[in-house]
Automatic annotation (TrEMBL):
The keyword Membrane applies. Its main location: Golgi. It holds the Pfam family Frag1. The keyword Metal-binding does not apply. GO terms for cellular component: endoplasmic reticulum membrane; Golgi membrane. This is Acyltransferase PGAP2. Residues 25-239 form the CWH43-like N-terminal domain. Involved in the fatty acid remodeling steps of GPI-anchor maturation where the unsaturated acyl chain at sn-2 of inositol phosphate is replaced by a saturated stearoyl chain. May catalyze the second step of the fatty acid remodeling, by reacylating a lyso-GPI intermediate at sn-2 of inositol phosphate by a saturated chain. The fatty acid remodeling steps is critical for the integration of GPI-APs into lipid rafts.
Amino acid sequence: MLQGSNIFGHERPLLIRVSFTACILGTVCLPLFGLITCVFISSAFHFEDSTGTHCQVPNYLPSISASISLSPESHIWRFCIGLHSAPRFLLAVTYFRFYKARFASRFPESPLICLNLTFSVCEHLGLLLLTYVSSSETYFVHKEGFVLFIISSLVHMLTTCRLWRSVKKFSLNPEDAKSHQWKVRFLRLNISFCAFAGFFYWKHNMYCESGSYTLFALFEYLVVVSNMAFHLTAVWDFRSRELMVISSSEDKD
């Protein structure tokens, strides 16, 4: 029997009720599972195809782009990213409403809220673009999707940390301070990993040194994992909230 929920004075049947924590964990674990699975399959079964580069020097790890462009890896990755898309957009809107409720008319928080939402959406659009257009199909489009994802994710994390500095300032809850602290830590790690990945990618293309592309691939993994860890801090932000799906029609006897 479905549990009822009173919405605007009307009793509606409650179809689904899930804690926001479970929703966030599922949203983050889907791409993490996809990444680990694709890298493992590429390394174990498509090693030569996934690690070969124009330099033709020894390479021991596949890049993410190489991993998700092969089959069945591409299907696994696209399935995981596609499944986690709706909750990601839902989370972006939830954060927007959360910030609006706290900083509706404050400066500079008010414009930062819109900027944060914009780059959160752009981050996910970039991820969808690089996911569904592989490097082996249209390299330019895949590359632009990757650049959009990286730039948008960095701006989104920066604006989020700035907003949470204000949240922490006006909050008495220690969980808010912990959330801000870990957000800043993951942001710093992400920036560091991006810098190292960019350096080794440049070094590989300039000098074709053995091991440079392997180190690029390793730091590329860490960029993505630190990004996932940043989004996982939403568990503290919405620890007491629930996601409910309610019927659009009233019960009829």
